[in-house]
Design the sequence.
């Protein structure tokens, strides 16, 4: 079976199906609430880990192999790490956004650690494994972009941590990679710009301290053209080129309608619901008596 | 403040905690003075002016002539089977290649599928500044009308899987992608691709395996693109989905496309 030797048959599909069954459970939990209960999160995470540990040798090996198998197993691993990272990211975000959360539980801290491990591993793996074609680059850019958020958030939150150099190194690696991937991903350049601007902003914080004011007229700062990224960080700009927008406007989280043809309108922007204000947070489910998460967290930043 | 709100990821509205926007929000919360340095979104991309445009279907006459073999097409098909097929091995490779070689088919499901294979092959083979994939997409879409959703051709389902599962995400139309994937899954279910009994009820082993792989490819594509949207999975997996996964390894029936 000639193709079988090249593709490892449909082994990647078989294992992807198993992974996707777990991911479907994750999806349905996230659909209930973005902050999954600790117990459920640990359950899902351990299913993911077990899946990875049970992969057939052919999909875990890094022995040289034919290209289809190579990209299949790289993608599986990147996706796996990304999902574990995403499962734990809400904890990091909630602790980081609440400066007085001095009593983060051990489990929360372990979750943050897992999140950081996964993003670090993603960056390291992708830097070695990405290939110069768009199937690889497209996904690589997306996963790198997601992974970069972890050291970035960490740098904003714990800006005088001993791990700063480590986080900075990770972000710089991402920047280098996104630069190298420009030919192989539509989104590489803009992803890089977003990451770069956040990185520059974080460095200003580091040097000027938390109360330092940024230079007026500084060209650095957060770039808000992140709208187009969601699942498909594509760089095909709508304005004038693709004509794909017709007359779609979009709504932001407050339900404010933004008419079409504003600058930076994404491909099809109407992905949110009008009534989507505050996400209900079940504090009792989180196992702590006091809220660690401000309900306004999930809304757009208020003025 | 709305400068922050207005251009951020709509889709993350259901998934604040796992979205990029949430990460940005945290950074701003921790360091509020960063708001001062917000800049308006950059909306320019350096693109050539003579790019192909996504056409509205009504503007284009349907071209149902057969597609003769060409080296170009062959290259694109090879690129598809090298870099795309491994993720969604739903095509019967030998059958597909042979149909292309003969160049005789002119049915709409085939024309749609072939053009989407060309589109993905083009993406897989070329650099990001090559936009020929748009032409193939346009041609594929000429053959997918609303009526097609009521048809019973597995190749239409496969074409939709590629369009909704990959291509529309690639060109940044995630809403349309999501809708088409939903439709494709429903079409697949009306063809009974999700039921084991229907797969086994045929003596055409290759066709049965194609059905199985098509279903599971749809399942994976839908999962990959919706896991973090914060929306329910809408039943793509459950007790009633009893078609077994494809088998890999020695127990597998010998199919030329393996």
Sequence:
């Amino acid at each position: 079976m000639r193709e079988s030797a090249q593709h490892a048959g449909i082994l990647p599909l078989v294992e992807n199906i198993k992974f996707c069954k777990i991911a479907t459970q994750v999806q349905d939990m996230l659909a209930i609430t973005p902050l999954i209960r600790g117990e459920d999160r640990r359950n899902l995470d351990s299913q993911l880990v077990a899946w990875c540990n049970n992969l057939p040798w052919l999909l875990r090996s890094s022995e040289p192999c034919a290209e289809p198998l190579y990209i299949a197993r790289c993608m599986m691993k990147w996706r796996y790490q990304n999902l574990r990272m995403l499962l734990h990211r809400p904890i990091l975000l909630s602790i980081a956004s609440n400066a007085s959360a001095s009593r983060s539980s051990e489990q929360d801290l372990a979750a943050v650690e897992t999140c950081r491990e996964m993003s670090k591993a993603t960056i390291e793996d992708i830097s070695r494994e990405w290939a110069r074609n768009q199937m690889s680059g497209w996904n690589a850019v997306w996963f790198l972009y997601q992974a970069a958020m972890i050291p970035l958030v960490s740098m904003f939150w714990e800006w005088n941590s001993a791990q700063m150099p480590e986080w900075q190194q990770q972000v710089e690696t991402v920047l280098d990679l996104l630069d190298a991937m420009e030919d192989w991903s539509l989104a590489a350049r803009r992803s890089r710009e977003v990451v770069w601007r956040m990185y520059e902003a974080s460095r200003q914080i580091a040097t000027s301290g938390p109360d330092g004011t940024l230079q007026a007229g500084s060209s650095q700062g957060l770039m808000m053209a992140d709208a187009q990224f969601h699942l498909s960080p594509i760089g095909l700009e709508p304005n004038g080129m693709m004509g794909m927008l017709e007359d779609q406007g979009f709504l932001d989280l407050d339900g404010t309608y933004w008419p079409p043809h504003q600058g930076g309108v994404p491909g099809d922007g109407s992905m949110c619901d009008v009534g989507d204000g505050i996400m209900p947070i079940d504090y009792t489910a989180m196992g702590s008596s006091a809220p660690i998460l401000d309900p306004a967290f999930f809304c757009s930043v208020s003025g | 403040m709305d400068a922050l709100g207005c251009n951020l990821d709509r889709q993350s509205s259901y998934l604040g905690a796992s979205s990029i926007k949430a990460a940005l929000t945290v950074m701003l919360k921790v360091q509020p003075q960063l708001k001062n340095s917000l800049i308006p979104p950059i909306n320019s991309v350096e693109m050539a002016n003579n790019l192909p445009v996504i056409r509205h279907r009504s503007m284009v006459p349907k071209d149902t002539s057969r597609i003769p073999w060409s080296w170009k097409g062959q290259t694109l098909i090879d690129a598809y089977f090298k870099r795309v097929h491994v993720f969604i091995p739903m095509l019967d490779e030998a059958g597909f290649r042979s149909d292309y070689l003969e160049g005789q088919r002119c049915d709409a499901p085939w024309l749609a599928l072939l053009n989407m294979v060309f589109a993905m092959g083009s993406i897989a083979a070329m650099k990001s500044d090559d936009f020929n994939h748009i032409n193939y997409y346009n041609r594929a879409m000429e053959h997918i009308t609303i009526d097609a959703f009521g048809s019973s051709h597995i190749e239409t389902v496969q074409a939709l899987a590629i369009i909704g599962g990959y291509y529309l995400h690639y060109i940044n139309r995630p809403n349309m992608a999501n809708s088409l994937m939903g439709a494709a899954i429903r079409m697949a279910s009306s063809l009974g691709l999700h039921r084991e009994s229907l797969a086994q009820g045929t003596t055409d082993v290759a066709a049965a395996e194609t059905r199985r792989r098509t279903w599971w490819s749809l399942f994976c594509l839908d999962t990959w693109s919706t896991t973090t949207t914060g929306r329910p999975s809408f039943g793509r997996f459950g007790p009633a989905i009893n078609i077994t996964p494809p088998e890999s390894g020695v127990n597998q029936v010998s199919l030329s496309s393996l």
